[in-house]
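Example record

The entry below shows one chain as it appears in the dataset: sequence first, then structure tokens.
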Amino acid sequence: MKITQEKFDQMKAKALGAGICNEWKRHLKESNNFDELLKVSEEEEACMLFEYAVYVLNGRFEEGEATIATDADYSYLYARDVIKGRFEEGEEAISKGAHYSYKYAVNVIKGRFEEGEATIAKDVHYSYPYARYVLKGRFEEGEETISKDACYSYPYAVNVIKGRFEEGEATISKDAHYSYLYARDVIKGRFEEGEATISKDAHYSYKYARYVLNGRFEEGEEAISKDAYYSYQYARYVIEGRFEEGEEAISKYPSYNSNYKNLLSNLLTN
């Protein structure tokens, strides 16, 4: 829609009437010409027309909808705040961005937005929440993208698939934190593909041994042995006995060394 001078005069008169918000009063006092107003206010045309609908009309501005529909941001806001429902004319623009496609699905449609799924599928930050909160199930089109990020592959397995997400396991296996969680919460047992990564981290090697394997994790003992705290914990809760490889590290901390000696003494007397 091209805003004619006649139309602009009508808009301005209405906006400057009693009870109209200060935002639009400020805008419309800056110019007597709509094109000049856009330059002076540094606003996009879609923004100005959206604001007119919200602040002046408190409802739909059908003459401006074709312009609003060219902008994803204001198409989404127009649907949410003005129409309070789908704005079909703006869906093409909305569908070109993952952010607004997801928000449009959640806050406007409150369900699938099929036109935006191809775009959402390319963005890991929205593919996972779209699956979990909109589809409430697998989003196969986005799984390739999800599979490249351990941070999303793990919760996708836990909260969406509720089981193994094999496509994401190679990525998960490169991260000790998610390898441990994936073993504990998804596989509920050994995650062999991630063990090489876990073994380089004393914290996760200890937790993997104690809470997943329920026994020694020999591949991770070198890393554990360099940390006094985890060496002591490993001896106490996993081996339930002497951990010779960790004794040098333990000996450097009096409190752990004392506790370790007490542990071994108690084991000998029991």
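Notes for this example: Residues 209 and 217 are 5 Å apart (CA to CA). The chain has a mean pLDDT of 90.
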